[in-house]
Specification:
This protein has 285 residues and is an alpha/beta fold. It has two domains: 5-90 and 171-284, Metal-dependent hydrolases (TIM Barrel, Alpha-Beta Barrel), CATH 3.20.20; 98-160, DNA polymerase, domain 1. Helices cover 41% and strands 15% of the residues. It has helices spanning 20-27, 44-50, 85-110, 117-124, 136-145, 152-160, 175-185, 201-212, 228-240, 272-284; strands at residues 5-9, 29-30, 32-35, 52-53, 59-65, 72-78, 188-191, 216-223, 244-248. The model has no long low-confidence stretch (mean pLDDT 93).
Length: 285
């Protein structure tokens, strides 16, 4: 069987549960796999050193962007990202994330949910909010452990999702700031799980067309959480706009139960040609 790709993976360097090197080893032989932790490149080197990939492994990161109607996550791929100006922006986001975590903790206790900073850090496997990209899944696990929620998803639905009692908005960049920067640096910017933007198909296509003009390169069409029909719809939009088709599992380990790297929920196939085209795009930059 042809080796597959997975261009959307998370480790415990952010809000996954598996260390980067162990995640890479668990994948086995792949055509291409890229670690895309939230707002951090901390695990990239360890992952790339271990992964058995047929193609050279670029750095990757998932950045949350400012967005009103839903959630906007941008996957960015490039070589030696830590030595680019984007890394400075990522560091700014990391500081904002730390401040948000402290506010979330304060909100939880004001709401009568007795959780501590030490408990959240223990779940995240660190001793300081500044040492690692701690996120809402770690809070969700503590809420479950205390019996305030039945599952990670239930914790988000009750407390942590946008509009729920503990939700605290991030300080974020807009695509108009990050897209042109990525273009100037020769990086590949890809909209992650595009339906999370909360737009109907027609509006989604026109919005993506606008963003393509200021630095958008690709669209995550082959996403584990989408139906075959949704993947087909997104692939058609990408082709119409001459955007790169990408895909991945969005694996987070135990923080997203049921998801497997490379396979998603069992029906995900990101073929070798997707990885080939990603690297071709990077090499053209």
């Amino acid at each position: 069987m042809q080796a597959r790709c997975d261009l959307h993976l998370h480790s415990d360097a952010s809000d996954g549960s598996v260390p980067p090197d162990q995640l890479a080893a668990n994948l086995g032989h792949v055509h291409l796999a890229v670690l895309t932790d939230h707002d951090t490149l901390a695990g990239s080197a360890a992952f790339a050193k271990v992964v058995d990939s047929e193609l050279p492994v670029p750095d990757g990161v998932e950045i949350s962007l400012r967005w009103e109607s839903g959630t906007f996550h941008l996957l960015v791929y490039g070589n030696s990202l830590a030595r680019t100006e984007l890394a400075t922006r990522i560091d700014e986001l990391a500081v904002a994330r730390q401040n948000r975590n402290l506010e979330l903790l304060d909100r939880a206790n004001q709401y009568g949910l007795s959780i501590t900073e030490e408990e959240v850090l223990a779940v995240a496997g660190t001793t300081d909010f500044q040492a690692k990209s701690v996120g809402r899944p770690h809070f969700a696990r503590v809420l479950v452990d205390h019996g305030y929620a039945e599952s990670i998803q239930d914790a988000f639905d009750r407390y942590l999702a946008k509009g729920r009692p503990l939700y605290s908005p991030k300080t974020l960049f807009g695509f108009d700031e990050i897209g042109p920067l990525c273009a100037d640096l020769g990086l590949v910017a890809v909209v992650a799980h595009p339906f999370s933007l909360g737009l109907p198909l027609s509006s989604l296509a026109s919005t993506l067309a606008d963003y393509r003009r200021i630095g958008l390169v690709g669209l995550e069409c082959l996403y584990a959480g989408y139906t075959p029909e949704q993947r087909t719809q997104l692939t058609q939009i990408a082709r119409d706009l001459d955007l790169l088709v990408t895909g991945g599992s969005d694996y987070h380990g135990t923080f997203k139960p049921g998801l497997e790297p490379l396979k998603g929920f069992g029906d995900l196939v990101v073929p070798a040609e997707v990885g080939d085209r990603l690297l071709e795009s990077l090499n053209r930059s």
